[in-house]
Write a structure and sequence with these properties.
The complex is a heterodimer. In chain A, α2 links the parallel β4 and β5. The N and C termini of chain A lie far apart (35 Å). Chain A is of the alpha/beta class. Chain A is built from 6 helices and 5 strands, in the order βββαβαβαααα. By secondary structure, chain B is an all-alpha fold. Chain B starts with a helix and ends in a 10-residue tail after the last strand. Chain B has a two-stranded antiparallel ribbon.
Chain lengths: 174, 173
Amino acid sequence: MMREWYRLNEARESWVFLRIELVERNGELDEWELGVGNMNHLLRTTACDRDEVADEGELLRRLGREVPHGIGSDGILITRDAEIVAQLRRRLIANDAVITPTLRGLRHVPLDEIADEYFAGHLPPVQDTVSSSDGDRNRLASGVPTHASIETLWRMWTQIVPVIPSQALTERRL
Amino acid sequence: MTANESSSTFTRRKFTLTEALDARLVKLANQHYQGNVSLCLRAAIEDHESTLNDSELLTLHQIEQQIKSLETEIQSATGTRTDETEVQGQLTQTHEFKGLTSGDGRDRMIERVFKVFQASDSSLRIADIVDQLDGQPEAIIRACGRLIDFGYLVEAEESSRYRLPVWGKTDDL
């Protein structure tokens, strides 16, 4: 590599944003939306719901293929709340269509806990108008919209990372 | 002579030594084994064997304990005391970046890159860091990305340059 061409890797997949919805009557996974990005870019977003696949197993397998994880990946999974990962764990165990499920290589940051710990329970509103429609929907006490799009989560996250301790991003290994 | 040695059956063995080593062997035997060269050599073998079997770790541990004991004595004598929380604080400071990656030395590269920025008065390009750290561009690029994503670095106004974030600072100042 010529030294003049040394550039930051703009495509680094440092953060993974995940939103899931469950079927109310049986608790199965109904849909997921996932985004991958870093401080500078939201690189990609993907979504899938039960209408697009044959069963929950396929929905989970597709999710697994999208999550950039693995030992040493150092990715950080950011969710609206801690319950999302608990729900995902339950579905991975309950659905035997997923072979060798793992969350290894990721660390988890639930935004509701960040809100409690570092913002006295209330995250600031997203300082951008692009996804302002999310702000009009129901909000958790933390200030995270309950149906926040991945882009809104990414914008919210880029706002708060510089003012919270770095340990808050790394202490919870999955 | 050890009990072990007294019960041994002796074997005669021919071997060669340099003249210098032979002189040292004779000197050691005279000093410590009443001139018995064979006895000196057998003891040397046992001693070396214990070294090879990692017994030096035990010795190091003993030395470490002795140093700690001496430190305590010095602190008692001088009336000074190392504040444990202060030491802990220093450790935490030097381990600021520990855990930002899952290991394999990348934390150390992150810290090295950060220190280059700390020592600089102006924003830097990736190439500047590569020059200062003498190579490893891939690791440096990865470390810079990690520092940015954890809020330790920000992009300067000038394209492709980076600096430490400072509250209130703009590149015009």
